[in-house]
Write a structure and sequence with these properties.
heteropentamer, A mainly alpha, B mainly alpha, C mainly alpha, D mainly alpha, E mainly alpha, A: mainly alpha, 3 helices, about 0% strand, B: mainly alpha, 22 helices, globular
Chain lengths: ~100, ~500, ~170, ~500, ~650
């Protein structure tokens, strides 16, 4: 069967869901952050697929933006996690509960 | 001389007060006194200049405010509010007078009091219902702060929050009703005059009326202490400083009723008729239930608070009855009760301050030690149980007459019986507070001296003037009452479901 | 008879999903490094999918920027902080289970909706080359591009601020 | 193409860069000068933006960037919010490490907001939102010596990135099903798109991202923690600028791009609004931390605003805009006081506010006015917006029971909120004996900021006409192509 | 011009206005002015307050005579003059005076007795700290009473009705520091209000049926449509009678009157003999037209058909008369004996109205006012002389030491007992017996005769025990005659007790109720024996029987022999047949219990369960709900994802 648009989209959707699952289930901030990257990648895949099947390059430009944003986010996020780790000696979400209720 | 001057006076006074540094206590008091005195005099002049016998709005002033939403700043008085304006300004003056014992942060106190005064007067003179609500809510924060900072009693915190939250909820539900009126009427305005003209042409459907009225009744009824939404009142007044209790029980409580008179009676006649019996029963709840509750009170302020609630029952009864006589009676009671409640709370406050207790069981024979305050209190309490000679009596009488035509006999009988209960607790209070032997263990509180008598005498004089000569009010009220209650309610249900007395009444050939 | 490219699709798709799964929920290792490595693999197999979709430039960027730069940053941080495995605290099975249900629901909704996605164009002629992309990027999408430059500036400033020593 | 349309954004960016560069030459002892520069700059731009010199209406970049009444309405408030926040930071410029960067970041975030207000395309919207969000990651965790700040930063980071992830995926689906990301083009095809499940899901996932920004249930979790942990000035900016940007975009998406679908979803929005406002109000009751309380209050206010969106009418949108206008002044006034008090006592517990009425009448008045306005009591700015909201809901209440329920729920919510707002007022005024009665000094810029906000709150409360007029114009400009139906229209049929 | 200004203007007009109604207004306002000025500050000077008060009331008395004379000389018709009071819709209430035979006669009684009582009080209350207050109150009372008398409509009457109640409250509670006085005042006021309760409802019924509250308007309407009140005719009448029941202390509201003796004795003379208690009877006569219409009952009370409101009124009056007479027989307190005697006589009058003889009732009211005031003032003189000793068994032999008091007291006793020919009491009592006979109420006639026998018995018991025999206490043995200010009023009141009989008052009053009335030929002082010999004979016989019995039982005894002979009946009579105890045991606790119940509901249900409950549960809910914010990112992300799922599901369903 020739893979159509929906094949790609379903791969993207599953990848996205995997990313969400990672965010929900993992406890290391770094892994959570990686899962978030997975989500963004899923969006990228969808965009590229749409771009191809819709005959419209705008989607690929958007991917470009997303990769840039992701890079910026990762930079800031990792800096933040490092700063937190220095302060708390931990990068686990369970240790991040001084602000609550 | 205009309504806007009258309305601005308290606010200008409040601003002036802000400009005076904090340690000039005498000047603060002086500014507040002069402001309220000027307000009262202006209101008196307006009252005198008001043409009786005319149904329309007088001293009208109007300017656009938020044209985008159809709101205007519209001032004016007719029979329904002219008396209330006078009453409010007199009470405000008296409340300022009795605040001489405020020691802590007097500047803030007088500022809040003037704000409250301005709010009350503004609510009464505004013809745009939005502003009516607006000015009414203006008093909320002053009430909260005054009760909190200068209040008394163990229960102050709870009572203050209770009164604030309860009243806000009521006001908001009422506001929802007004918002519904705004959208359902299609007039896209809350200007009463415009709305009235509009609704005369395009009356609200029965469905809309029955949707709006419960909101208004419950919402604004809560502001008045309609049974069973009354439990904020008595503890609130007991915890409030004297001036606040006077302003609130006397003046602000009337705003809710006033809105109901302005809106429910002319605009929602069908729904009002539909809700007549439930409303009458709730009114009886006020009159009888709160009366009986008052009977059990051993705290003079709680007693007055509950009795004030009982009086409000008569207003609701008149509202239920509607009609020219009923509405006239309600307005009469509103004016009278405003003066009376202020007088009672003022005197009781003096008493409590002088003796250091509000417990009736610990007082006695005070008429001997405080002849002036005692006598005035006797007069106030007797006026409270509907004694002729004071303004309450003509009001209650008129409501009775108005209610007789539309409501069943047992309601009237029970309501009138409520005054009897009033008699019981008022006389008991006189007996326990003022009569009997002097209690030696009480501090020998001072009677009101020359100047301290001014507020009480002012209120008493007004009460007696309107009591002896209710025509001066009635002649002003009646045309406006006829204008709002002119729409005859749907004719009464068939004779079969009516008590026998009613049939006789409606079939009377001599009926004028 | 499936063409070779179709098989490639299935291969890359399978690889992508498998590596993605191993990245977020590796049953054997809870070490962040493992996750990072599988993420790299996911990204690379995705680049393969990109190629299949004629997005050659993006495929290159994907590998260069993501696998080459971003993931290295991750690894660098992991090493820097010397983060070992997620400590074997008791896994909250119930929480993970509920989370899985929620995510499964989400996935179900997405799959159900996307199953019927139809292409807007019948023939695919676009070619994701550097030239074509560059043209669009610097004409129609100039404004977001410029905004992104501010974003990058912010990120730069932020990273410097966050990682420098406290100065009073 | 008319680049003058972008003048405001360009100038603010340049101001930010200038502040960053200025730090290189200015000695560290005179760093507060940078604050003054930034504030003056924003002030000038603000007068420029709201004055007659504002750029004329128009679009740029193929309709991606639009300048209209709505964008101008919001831009004024973003600049105002930035101005006040910068003014508030000047007093503590010595104690902030990297003060110049802080100011610059505030300016960059403002740029993001300005773009958000003008975004007419999902791509620009995404990029602008990311600019705001990423900047706030840094701003929230700015007080690195307080671990609360860092924790808040990380929480905001993860939640924000999660929301971005959903949003990106949503935008991808929108792009895929519509073939375009421009609002007007989508609006023209919305009847057809309304039948596409891919588009609808994409739209929903995009709205999730906006729901995160405005802190609506069920995307509200971050707000209390972040509000509490972040520096007070950042919180102020987060509660005003960021939230308003979210609403600017929400309104645009809802009414410029997909008005018919919004009408179809009005009951859902209404329900979310009710749940949000009740959630915020209820959770705020037991709070002792004033900043956290403001976080819950912010959630509750998002709920009220959603009600206005759910009204799906010109009046509803006008109400939302009016409400936001008053809300920004109000919240800024509140945070001005909170910033001073927390800086003074190193605590944002209610007890830190005890006796404020005597310690600093100005601050006490400021906070009281703010809280009372938040509660929606006349004659303050918060009241009129709330009234318009109720009114817009009431327009449907006659025919739809759910709207009547929402109306009453809103009333209940106001009462509950009064309870906790007045709890703070009580702490400030009631205590008859307070241990610490030392006056709290208030520096000049803070006084100025507080003064601006208080006058705004009072003026807008008493004379709201200009605001309502502006809001109405802005709301009217939301839908150039299709008129907004007065009643919820069930245009979408499956 | 509004009414208030009008009244002031009126007060300023010369007293010798040509219009009788203006004169009436002036009479009404004189005591008010006195009272107001005393309240305003004159009270600090004892002399001034007394002078002002007495001056006003004496002037009013003189003016009343001026108003009365034309009637006596043939009469004229006065036009009621009115001021607007409440005009709203169908309700028109004016302040107006009715000047006619009834009111003018009543004016004379009220101002006359009030003048004498006030003069008497100057001596009686000498040295009391509340001297000024006393005169202020008594002037207020006089004003209120005059208001009732002159009212030309039911509402105005009701207004003054209540004012009388409150001024009597002030007077009874004059010594408010004494708990018993304070309690008595409270009881009197409340009992009166209980009666007023019905009164107002009656007014409302009459108003809604006739459209008027004016006596004239009601009369006209009822003349045109006698059935205007429909099935409520009898009930309306009875409700209005409730008012009279309270003021005139008819069973079952009679309990307040004896207690009211806690007030100063002159007050008792004024209020509880001559004026306030007479107001009820006066009102019945005034509103007689309402009672005349044919009786009718609503369906549930259909079994009462055939009995009119008047029949019930007559029965209540007769019962009260007998009951009170029985109680009077065993009282020892001199004022209480008089009080019960008053009750008994009021019952008599009410019975007369009920039997269709309002003229007779008014006649007896007039004569009774004179001699009962005399008796009370006499009792006051005795008490004053005996240093506030009120128990007749601790007096004795006073006839020698208090000669003037004794003689006048004896005249009063004779009048009360109805000594034929010589005293006015005989004629008026006879008129009542005649009306009972004529009205077709033989049972009530018998009752009347029985009471007529009891009256001389208990009065002579009082006279014999108090004035004859040895002095039984120090106070009694050292008693000496009161000052002139007290004795002269006694003498003045003794005159009408004897002389009024010969003025032909009966005919004067009958002419009021029946325009076609013609005086009987051959009236004169032996009239009763000519016209209705049966009644006169029975009356005289009863007197003789009662007097003989009294002399037989009490002459020369030191201790009441009756308790020994009658046993528990005597106890019951002494203890007022336990009505007070019954009320105390049933109604007061019942009412208190309702109050307690409401208080509890208010406290526990409304304030507690509902308000505190709602408050508490909301707060609890908030406390619970915020636990959702665990602070753990994992919870947050999970809820976020779940939220997305839920929202998407909701939106796409």
């Amino acid at each position: 069967m020739t893979p159509g648009l929906h094949h790609y989209l379903i791969v993207s959707a599953l990848l996205f869901s995997l990313g969400v699952f990672g965010v929900v289930s993992r406890r290391s901030l770094l892994v959570i952050y990686m899962s978030l990257e997975l989500m963004l990648n899923a969006a990228n895949l969808a965009l590229v697929a749409f771009s191809q099947f819709n005959n419209n390059l705008d989607g690929q430009v958007m991917v470009f933006f997303i990769i840039t944003v992701a890079a910026a986010e990762v930079a800031v996020g990792l800096a933040l996690i490092v700063a937190l780790y220095r302060k708390r000696r931990s990068a686990h979400v369970e240790d991040l509960t001084s602000l609550k209720y | 001389m205009s309504l806007s001057t009258l309305l601005l006076t308290p606010f200008v006074g409040a601003l002036l007060l802000l400009l005076v540094p904090g340690n000039y206590r005498v000047i603060h008091r002086f500014i507040a006194l002069v402001t309220t005195a000027v307000t009262a005099l202006e209101a008196l002049r307006l009252f005198a200049a008001f043409q009786p016998g005319i149904a329309g709005i007088q001293f009208e002033q109007s300017s656009a405010w938020v044209p985008a939403a159809g709101f205007s700043f519209h001032l004016g008085v007719d029979g329904l509010n002219i008396g209330l304006v006078l009453m409010a300004s007199l009470v405000a003056f008296a409340a300022t007078c009795v605040s001489w014992d405020i020691e802590r942060q007097p500047k803030l106190f007088y500022f809040l009091l003037l704000l409250m005064t301005g709010g009350a007067i503004g609510a009464f003179v505004s013809l745009d219902l939005f502003f009516l609500y607006f000015f009414n809510e203006l008093a909320l924060v002053p009430t909260f702060l005054m009760m909190g900072i200068w209040g008394r009693g163990e229960n102050r915190n709870y009572a203050t929050f209770q009164i604030t939250l309860y009243l806000t909820l009521g006001a908001l539900i009422g506001l929802s009703g007004l918002a519904l009126l705004y959208s359902q009427s299609g007039a896209n305005t809350l200007d009463w005059v415009v709305l009235k003209a509009w609704l005369a042409e395009n009356p609200l459907s029965a469905h809309s009326q029955r949707l709006i009225l419960p909101l208004l009744l419950i919402g604004f009824g809560t502001l008045v202490g309609l049974f069973p939404f009354h439990s904020w009142a008595a503890p609130g007044y007991a915890a409030a400083p004297t001036a606040t209790a006077m302003m609130h029980a006397g003046v602000l409580k009337k705003v809710g009723l006033y809105i109901l008179l302005r809106v429910a009676v002319p605009f929602l006649p069908e729904a009002l008729h539909h809700w007549m019996y439930p409303l009458a029963i709730l009114a009886l709840g006020n009159i009888l239930f709160c009366g009986w509750v008052a009977l059990r009170q051993r705290d003079v302020l709680l007693l007055l608070g509950n009795s004030s609630l009982a009086h409000m029952g008569f207003c609701f009864l008149g509202l239920a009855a509607s009609g020219v006589i009923g509405v006239t009676g309600v307005v009469l009671i509103m004016v009278a009760h405003g003066l009376l409640a202020a007088l009672s709370f003022g005197l009781a406050g003096h008493l409590v301050r002088a003796t250091g207790t509000a417990d009736i069981d610990r007082m006695g024979g005070l008429l001997k030690t405080m002849p002036f305050v005692g006598t005035a209190l006797i007069m106030a309490l007797l006026a409270g149980c509907g004694l002729p000679g004071f303004a309450n009596f003509p009001g209650e009488l008129t409501v009775m007459f108005g209610a007789w035509k539309t409501l069943p006999v047992f309601v009237i009988a029970a309501a009138w019986g409520g005054l009897l209960i009033g008699g019981v607790y008022m006389l008991r209070a006189i007996r326990d507070l003022l009569h009997g032997p002097v209690r030696a263990e009480l501090p020998q509180g001072d009677d009101a001296g020359c100047w301290r008598r001014v507020p009480f005498l002012t209120l008493l004089a007004a009460l007696i003037f309107f009591g002896v000569n209710p025509a001066s009010l009635v002649d002003r009220i009646t045309p406006a009452a006829a204008a709002v209650a002119g729409v005859p309610p749907v004719s009464a249900p068939t004779a079969g479901s009516e008590p026998a007395g009613h049939v006789a009444v409606t079939s009377s050939p001599n009926h004028r | 008879m499936p063409e070779f490219t179709d098989l490639l699709f299935y291969a890359f798709a399978g690889l992508t999903l498998l590596c993605g799964f191993l990245c977020v929920a590796n049953p054997l290792s809870r070490n962040p490094v493992t996750s990072a490595m599988f993420l790299v693999l996911t990204i690379i197999s995705m680049a393969g999918l990109f190629v299949l979709l004629h997005a050659f430039f993006l495929a290159a960027v994907q590998v260069l920027v993501y696998a080459g730069a971003v993931m290295v940053l991750f690894l660098f941080v992991i090493m820097l902080l010397n983060i070992k495995e997620e400590e074997r605290r008791k896994m909250n099975i119930a929480a993970v289970g509920v989370g899985a249900v929620a995510v499964a629901t989400l996935a179900g909704i997405l799959v159900r909706a996307l199953w019927h996605a139809t292409p807007l164009a019948t023939t695919a002629t676009v070619e994701g080359s550097t030239r074509t992309l560059g043209r669009i990027l610097f004409t129609r999408y100039l404004l977001p591009f410029e905004v992104l430059s501010v974003l990058l500036l912010v990120a730069m400033v932020g990273v410097i601020l966050l990682s420098r020593k406290e100065l009073k | 193409m008319n680049y003058s349309l972008l003048s405001l954004e360009i100038l603010v960016t340049l101001l930010g860069v200038a502040v960053l560069l200025g730090d290189l030459w200015i000695p560290s002892s005179a760093r507060r000068l940078l604050g003054y520069v930034a504030a003056t700059g924003i002030g000038i731009l603000l007068t420029y933006a709201v004055g007659t010199a504002a750029p004329p209406d128009g679009t740029a970049f193929g309709g991606m960037f639009v300048v209209d009444a709505l964008s101008n309405y919001f831009k004024g408030f973003f600049l105002l919010s930035a101005l006040v926040v910068v003014l508030l930071t000047i007093g503590s410029s010595e104690s902030i490490s990297g003060y110049a960067e802080y100011c610059a970041l505030i300016l960059f975030a403002t740029v993001g907001m300005l773009f958000a207000a003008s975004a007419n395309d999902f791509v620009l919207m995404f990029v602008a939102l990311e600019l705001i969000t990423v900047t706030f990651f840094i701003l929230v965790s700015y007080s690195r010596n307080r671990s609360g700040s860092l924790e808040a930063g990380v929480k905001y980071l993860i939640m924000g990135a999660l929301a971005s992830g959903f949003m990106v995926f949503g935008i991808a689906l929108i792009f895929g099903s519509a073939g375009t990301t421009q609002f007007y083009e989508i609006a023209a095809r919305q009847t057809e798109l309304g039948r596409s499940p891919v588009f609808l899901i994409g739209l929903l996932l995009t709205l999730v991202g906006l729901g995160f920004k405005i802190a609506a249930v069920p995307f509200q979790m971050w707000a209390p923690d972040v509000y509490q942990g972040a520096p007070a000035t950042t919180t102020a900016f987060l509660a005003t600028g960021s939230k308003a940007a979210g609403f600017a975009l929400l309104l645009r998406v809802a009414f410029s791009a997909v008005p018919d679908i919004t009408a179809h979803w009005s009951r859902l929005i209404l329900g979310l609004g009710v749940v949000t406002l009740l959630y915020g109000s209820l959770c705020a009751i037991p709070q002792r931390s004033v900043k956290r309380l403001m976080g819950y209050s912010s959630i509750a206010n998002a709920g009220y605003l959603l009600l206005g969106v759910a009204a799906v009418s010109l009046n509803g949108s006008t109400a939302v805009l009016t409400y936001l206008g008053g809300y920004i002044f109000t919240v800024l006034a509140g945070f001005a006081v909170i910033a001073v008090v927390t800086a003074q006592s190193n605590s944002d517990d209610v007890s830190a506010f005890a006796g404020l009425g005597q310690r600093s009448p100005l601050l006490a008045t400021g906070l009281t006015v703010s809280l009372v306005s938040l509660a929606g009591i006349p004659p303050l700015a918060g009241f009129f917006g709330k009234f318009l909201l109720l009114k817009s809901i009431a327009a449907h209440a006659g025919s739809e029971r759910l709207y009547l329920v929402a109306l009453l729920a809103a009333c209940v919510g106001v009462v509950i909120s009064l309870y906790y707002y007045f709890g703070v007022v009580r702490a400030m005024f009631w205590p008859r004996t307070v241990a610490d009665l030392t006056p709290i000094p208030v520096d000049g810029p803070t006084r100025l900021a507080l003064g601006i906000c208080l006058i705004g709150v009072l003026y807008l409360g008493v004379f709201p006409n200009a605001l309502v007029q502006g809001a109405k114009q802005a709301a009217a400009g939301l839908v150039p192509q299709t008129a907004i139906a007065a009643q919820p229209v069930h245009a979408v049929h499956h | 011009m509004d009414a208030h200004a009008a009244q002031h203007a009126l007060a300023a007009t010369p007293a010798f206005s040509s219009r009788p109604e203006d004169l009436a207004w002036f009479i009404l306002l004189l005591p008010l002015i006195a009272s107001a000025s005393i309240a305003a500050g004159v009270r600090r000077s004892t002399f001034l307050s007394a002078t002002l008060s007495i001056g006003a009331v004496v002037a009013a008395f003189v003016l009343s005579i001026a108003l009365f004379l034309p009637f006596g000389l043939g009469g004229y018709v006065a036009v009621p003059s009115t001021f607007s009071w409440i005009h709203a819709g169908d309700l028109n209430v004016d302040l107006g005076v009715a000047v006619d035979r009834l009111s003018v006669l009543m004016l004379l009684i009220v101002t006359g007795v009030s003048s004498l009582v006030q003069i008497y009080s100057t001596a009686y209350l000498k040295g009391d700290s509340g001297y000024g207050r006393y005169f202020g109150s008594i002037s207020l009372f006089t004003f209120a009473m005059l208001g009732i008398v002159l009212a030309d409509n039911l509402v105005m009457m009701f207004v003054f009705w209540e004012l009388v109640g409150v001024s009597s409250y002030l007077l009874i509670g004059f010594w408010f520091e004494k708990p018993s006085a304070a309690d008595a005042a409270k009881k009197a006021f409340l009992t009166n209000r209980l009666g007023d309760f019905g009164f107002l409802l009656g007014i409302l019924m009459v108003w809604s049926a006739t459209g008027s509250v004016q006596f004239a308007g009601i009369a006209n309407a009822l003349a045109l449509h006698p059935a205007a009140l429909g099935s409520l005719a009898s009930i309306a009448g009875l409700l209005i009678f409730c008012g009279a029941m309270g003021k005139s202390a008819q069973f079952p509201l009679h309990v307040w009157l004896p207690d009211a003796m806690e007030g100063p004795t002159p007050v008792s003379a004024l209020i509880h003999a001559a004026t306030m208690v007479a107001a009820g009877v006066y009102m019945l006569c005034r509103a007689y037209v309402i009672f005349q219409i044919p009786g009718a009952w609503p369906a549930p009370l259909g079994f009462l058909s055939g009995i009119s409101a008047l029949d019930i009124i007559a029965a209540i009056g007769g019962f009260t008369a007998l009951l009170a007479a029985l109680m009077a027989v065993q009282q020892d307190d001199i004022k209480r004996i008089l009080a019960y005697s008053t009750l008994s006589q009021l019952g008599y009058m009410v019975m007369a109205v009920g039997c269709g003889g309002p003229a007779a009732a008014m006649y007896h009211l007039t004569t009774h006012a004179g001699f009962k005031a005399l008796l009370f003032l006499g009792a006051g003189a005795v008490i004053h002389a005996c240093h506030h000793e009120q128990n007749i068994w601790r007096m004795g032999g006073l006839w020698r030491r208090l000669p003037v008091t004794f003689r006048t007291f004896a005249i009063g006793t004779a009048a009360l007992a109805g000594l034929p020919i010589l005293t006015s009491g005989f004629y008026s009592k006879d008129a009542i017996l005649v009306s009972a006979l004529d009205g077709g109420h033989p049972v009530l006639f018998g009752l009347g005769v029985l009471v007529a026998a009891f009256t001389p018995f208990y009065m002579l018991r009082l006279v014999i025990v108090a004035f004859f025999g040895p002095a039984r206490s120090d106070a009694a043995s050292h008693a000496h005659e009161a000052p002139a200010a007290m004795t002269w009023p006694l003498i003045a009141l003794a005159v009408p007790s004897v002389a009024v009989a010969w003025l032909g008052l009966g005919d004067f009053l009958s002419a009021h109720f029946d325009p076609h009335f013609h005086a009987h030929e051959g009236g004169g002082i032996f009239g009763p024996f000519n016209h209705a010999p049966l009644a006169a004979m029975f009356g005289t016989g009863a007197l003789l029987f009662g007097a003989t019995a009294a002399f037989g039982v009490y002459w020369g005894v030191a201790k009441d022999p009756l308790p020994a002979q009658l046993g528990c009946l005597s106890r019951a009579m002494r203890d007022r047949f336990y009505f007070d105890e019954l009320y105390e045991a049933v109604f007061v606790p019942l009412h208190d219990m309702i109050g307690r119940l409401c208080g509890a509901i208010d406290r526990w249900v409304f304030s507690g369960l509902i308000i505190r409950g709602v408050h508490g549960s909301v707060e609890l809910f908030g406390r619970g709900l915020r636990l959702v914010q665990t602070g753990n990112l994992q919870t947050y992300t999970f809820l976020f994802a779940a939220g997305v799922a839920v929202v998407v599901l909701l939106a796409t369903i």
